[in-house]
Amino acid sequence: MNKKDLAELKKHFVQDDDLMTVKKISSTFIDSEKEMRCHTVRGYHEIPEEELFCLYQSLAKVLKGTLGKSLIEYAFPNEMYEEDQSQNLLWKLLENGLEDEEQLEKLLKHISGNMHYALPYAVFIAECVYTVFEKTKSGERNKFDSHDYRFLIAAVCPVESRVDGLIYDEVNNSIIRKTEFDRVVADAPTDGFLFPTFTGRGPDVNHVMYYTKKPKDPNVSFVEEVLGCHFTLSAQEEKETFRAVLDKAVGEELNLNVIASVNEKIQDYAKTFKDEPEPPVVSDIMMRDILLDSGVTQERAEAAQQLYRETADGNYFAASNLTDTKTTLTSSGVTVSISGDATDKVTTRMIDGRKFLMISLDDPEVTVNGFELKIQ
After folding, report:
1. Fewer CB within a 10 Å sphere, N or C end of the chain?
2. Are residues 190 and 305 in the same domain?
């Protein structure tokens, strides 16, 4: 599933779209003991408008992430198609629809039994159909050539029990302390999935798209135990692993200029290919060439290439996951942030055996906490 496929599906997953039909929605409350306390399946037109709006909001957020960060596509291992395994459960439910109560209950018990949540949560699953029209040579819809993409989209939303403190009591016209608990379902899901993926404008039942609200801290147990897939590195883990490779292989040559140059070159590469269907990745050869262009010796650059190839094991990292918008230097009690176009104003020096950070202050105006800096 690429960015173009995702954008098309996202565009049509709105209320009252003429090509998208939400047939039924399952709503389930699961308590902290993993017990299903409430479960309903309703057709689209059975749900009150205000509630339907909230459900759409939660489900649509599962599609609003960025590929490679909050949205990650996973392939099902072959064994997941065996009886009562994740892919098998999803496929049978998709085939029979949410009307198959027995199959839906199996999936919900699979989710609740494998979710590692300390708090209660709600699970919303929608059965949807998107009518996909082929395009004519002029880019128009070919009304005589279409097919249906049937899919399930699920959102897992935490439930908070809280007392909101003081409230206004309209009956007694007074401000009083609220004493009753409300169980509020968050509109932003922490996890979710799309099955099957929408790939090449059609279904791919061998893949599932996982959504996480926290790309830097995804729910590994959801990927591995609920979906049954092999977890890959998160965006933050890719960045940290990439840094570790550079630090180990480049060593003493990894100075300020090299770090800034590598960051800038990968940023430029990511921007150049940002509109491509697939997110651009940094290959081992590209890493070597970037390091050479940044002033690293041939020996160190090739060592980094080899280490990166072994570490990534064929799954090269997304370029957008490896860069920072600014260069930040930190030391004990000192933090200096440098925007990308100002790195040439900063350098490091060794003077009398001590390390110094040198910043050019040749600009007409230099301020500190809003005050104009007076340099004697």
Report:
1. C
2. no
| The pLDDT of residue 343 is above 80 | no
279/363 same-domain check = no
User: Do 351 and 314 sit in the same domain of this protein?
Assistant: no
Instruction: For 314-329, write each residue's pLDDT tens digit.
Output: 889 999 889 888 788 8
**Can you tell me the distance from the alpha carbon of 139 to that of 9, in angstroms, rounded to the nearest whole number?**
17
How does 43-79 read in b/e, with b if 16+ C-beta sit within 10 Å? ebeebeeeebeebbebbebbbebebbbbbbbbebeee
Instruction: Report the C-alpha gap between 239 and 271 in whole angstroms.
Output: 17
CA distances from residue 186 to 27, 57, 73, 358 in whole angstroms, order as listed: 13, 11, 25, 49
Sign of CA dihedral 94, 41, 154, 229: negative
Q: Are residues 244 and 212 in the same domain?
A: no
Nearest to 110 by CA among 193, 23, 11: 193
Average pLDDT over residues 9-31: 93
Length, in residues, of the chain: 376
More confident residue, 356 or 156: 156
Q: Is the dihedral of CA 283, 284, 285, 287 positive or negative?
A: positive
Roughly what angle, to the nearest 10 degrees, separates helices 284-293 and 256-272?
A: 130
pLDDT, tens only, 50-77: 999 999 999 999 998 888 889 999 999 9
Minimum mean pLDDT among 22-26, 52-56, 81-85, 271-275: which range? Answer: 271-275
Of 231, 249, 269, which residue sits at a domain end? 231
Tokens representing residue 85 in the block: 């395994």
Do residues 192 and 111 both lie within one domain?
yes
- State whether residue 372 is helix, strand or coil: strand
Round to whole Å and give the CA distance between 123 and 39. Answer: 9
What pLDDT is recorded for position 135?
80
For residue 248, how many other CB atoms are within 10 A of its CB?
13
Distance CA(239)–CA(324), nearest Å, equals: 10
